[in-house]
From TrEMBL:
Localization terms from the record: Cytoplasm
InterPro entries: Acyl_CoA_acyltransferase, Arg_succ_lyase_C, Argininosuccinate_lyase, ASAL_AGS_AcTrfase, Fumarase/histidase_N, Fumarate_lyase_CS, Fumarate_lyase_fam, Fumarate_lyase_N
Boundaries of every N-acetyltransferase domain copy: 461-595
Taxonomy of the source species: Bacteria, Pseudomonadati, Pseudomonadota, Gammaproteobacteria, Alteromonadales
Family indicated by similarity: In the N-terminal section; belongs to the lyase 1 family. Argininosuccinate lyase subfamily. Belongs to the lyase 1 family. Argininosuccinate lyase subfamily.
Annotated protein name in UniProt: Argininosuccinate lyase
Biological source species: Thalassomonas haliotis
Primary gene name: argH
Pfam family, one: Lyase_1
EC number annotated for this UniProt entry: 4.3.2.1
Length: 624
């Protein structure tokens, strides 16, 4: 159904209809169109166009249509309607007859679509800000847990000065903070309501536009009808914010691709965010990061496309503006999926500390410190710089790092160099000397982490029983620690059947740890499959999981609890005492015969007596 047929003698050709209709993409605005229509029905009721009873009927029918759409029970895409506005009005007319035909009184599709798109954009901005904040929290956790690791910093892709890995993480938090602030600013500007502007000149009906705007959650109405129906600055702002953020994500991806390469080998990416080669079995490709980097160009294209579309448009509405949506819809989806995937990557990262340290010591990064040392002895910086360069040339020729040169070798370049030079050439000194705000020293890095933790909110976590929706996260954790031979592997169908055995730690909405309480037919229970994500360790989450399972075991009136572990000191702190695995035939028969280490077991058995709340000084061994 078209909303403009009265003036035409013949119908549109099928070719024009397919070219002109926007329903294949603007159906995404259906809930916003319904929301705006409810607001408009109230406004025209107050203006005397609808009776109160008609408005109430219309509002209820629109709410019913909204529920139908949400339940997936609509035929919107196969309806043949020209656009989402036509479809909503047609559905309403089918339900209410002539009452529905009054809804469009005083309203144009020009102010209607502008309103719908602002409502949709506002909602998506909130989702994107949340995703950016989550990404910052994940990076902050990674930084917090890796403050001691030092790796080379780079300029011109050449090793420059050593930095803390946490400092690198904090740099991207700064970028994502700016991305979030751009969206916050854009949200304020877009939160003005075009509805009531009509086609371009306003409406003749007595509409309280302030009340209408506030009913739809806007701060107020747009005050110029020409601008209101033709303005797409808010779309441009989202596209620009997306382009800047995707550029940040692309740089983030490029850094990690390099860090993960065989040449650098500073980090290892988890199996869950990498893929293999169909030909070369040894390959482990960083596909998630490469796709993030690759999708950046698509987002840039959407921004450039809309800028070109808008640059030559006369005032006010023109059909060219229909081209604002597809690029926006795709951009928002791609941006959000890249932020989510970046979080997956962050949570999978393991630091190869020894390799980072070795690389940081190479490349003569301490040459600047040698120059500063000479400056402290009264040598002008330019002279000190030249002397340090000569030392580097000599060290390269000797194939030695500067700190390995003997004192007499160093003295040939300056008699001012003494034994006290060696401490300042050490890696930790190079890093921690930069203790100024914004530097990579331990103190400023730690202070910024604490500040971010305060600003982003503390890590809200809960220990709870697992749900089936946690299966993917549990499976990832179990597979990860099984690959490290800390737990026994568990097949997915086994995990599904035993999902009620599991408890999880959820931090800021993300499952980052799990453990299971398995009950044998004899009444013995075991803590197993205990694992916390590598980037969430040191927070007491493992302790919280075990205590949760202990409480569950008490409520089930179990008598004793066992664990088999390579970390006996951890469980000893929780009240478990040494036991003997051979006294636990249930465990031996259930799992030990399946373990390739059964003849060379290095696990310790521990037991907890639940009868009197005190440990039972008899047999036990590991967390699987």
């Amino acid at each position: 159904m078209a909303l403009w047929g009265g003036r035409f003698k013949t119908a549109s050709s099928d070719i024009f209809k397919e070219f002109n209709d926007s329903l294949p993409f603007d159906h995404l605005l259906v809930q916003q169109d319904i929301q705006g229509s409810i607001g408009w029905s109230k406004a025209i009721q107050q203006a005397g166009v609808l009776t109160l009873e008609e408005q109430q009927q219309m509002e209820q029918a629109l709410l019913d249509l909204s529920a139908k759409v949400a339940a997936g029970e609509s035929d919107i895409l196969t309806s043949g309607a020209e656009d989402v506005h036509s479809w909503v009005e047609a559905e309403l007319t089918t339900e209410l007859g002539d009452i529905a035909r009054k809804l469009h009184t005083g309203r144009s599709r020009n102010d209607q679509v502008a309103t719908d798109l602002r409502l949709w954009s506002r909602a998506q901005v909130d989702v994107l800000i949340d995703a950016l904040n989550t990404c910052q929290q994940q990076l902050l956790t990674l930084a917090e847990n890796n403050q001691e690791h030092i790796l080379p910093g780079y300029t011109h892709l050449q090793r420059a000065q050593p930095i803390r890995f946490a400092h690198w993480c904090l740099a991207y938090i700064e970028m994502f903070k700016r991305d979030s602030s751009r969206l916050t600013d854009a949200r304020k500007r877009m939160n003005q309501c075009p509805l009531g502007s009509g086609a371009l000149a306003g409406t003749t009906y007595d509409i309280d536009r302030y009340e209408l705007a506030h009913s739809l959650g806007f701060d107020g109405p747009c005050v110029n009808s020409l601008d209101a129906v033709s303005d797409r600055d808010f779309v441009l702002e989202i596209l620009f914010a997306a382009s800047a953020s995707m550029m940040h994500l692309s740089r983030f991806a490029e850094d990690l691709i390099f860090f993960n390469s065989g040449e650098a080998n500073f980090i290892t990416l988890g199996d869950q965010v990498t893929s293999g080669s169909s030909l070369m079995p040894q390959k482990k490709n960083p596909d998630a990061l490469e796709l993030i980097r690759g999708k950046c160009g698509r987002v840039y294209g959407a921004l450039q496309g809309l800028l070109v579309t808008l640059k030559g448009l006369p005032m006010a509405y023109n059909k060219d503006l229909q081209e604002d949506k597809e690029g926006l819809f795709e951009t928002v989806g791609q941006w959000h999926s890249c932020l989510v995937m970046a979080g997956e990557v962050i949570n999978s990262i393991e630091i190869n500390s020894a390799r980072c340290q070795k690389a940081a010591r190479e490349g003569y990064a301490n040459a600047t410190e040698l120059a500063d040392y000479l400056v402290s002895k009264g040598v002008p910086f330019r002279t000190a710089h030249e002397i340090s360069g000569q030392v580097v040339l000599y060290a390269i020729k000797q194939q030695e790092p500067i700190e390995s040169l003997r004192l007499e070798e160093l003295k040939q370049f300056s008699p001012l160099i003494e034994q006290d030079v060696y401490p300042i050439l050490e890696l930790e000194y190079l890093v921690d000397k930069r203790n100024i705000l914004g530097g990579t020293g331990k103190k400023p890095v730690s202070n910024i982490i604490a500040q971010y933790r305060h600003n982003l909110g503390t890590s809200d976590y809960q220990v709870r029983d697992a749900k089936l929706t946690d299966l993917r996260a549990i499976s990832k954790l179990v597979d990860y620690w099984a690959a490290k031979e800390e737990n026994l592997p568990r097949a997915e169908d086994e995990l599904i059947k035993s999902i009620r055995d599991f408890a999880v730690i959820e931090v800021n909405g993300q499952v980052c740890g799990c453990a299971a309480l398995y009950i044998y037919s004899t009444g013995l229970a075991e803590v197993r499959s205990l694992g916390v994500s590598i980037n969430y360790q040191g927070k007491g989450y493992g302790k919280a999981l075990v205590e949760h399972l202990l409480e569950r075991a008490k409520n089930l009136a179990l008598s004793k609890l066992l664990v088999l572990t390579r970390k006996p000191e951890f469980f000893a702190r929780l009240g478990f005492e040494p036991g003997n695995k051979e006294h636990l035939p249930e465990k031996v028969m259930k799992d030990c015969d399946l373990c390739h280490r059964q003849d060379n077991c290095d696990e310790t058995a521990l037991l907890y007596n639940l009868n009197n709340g005190h440990p039972l000084a008899i047999p036990v061994t590991q967390v699987n």
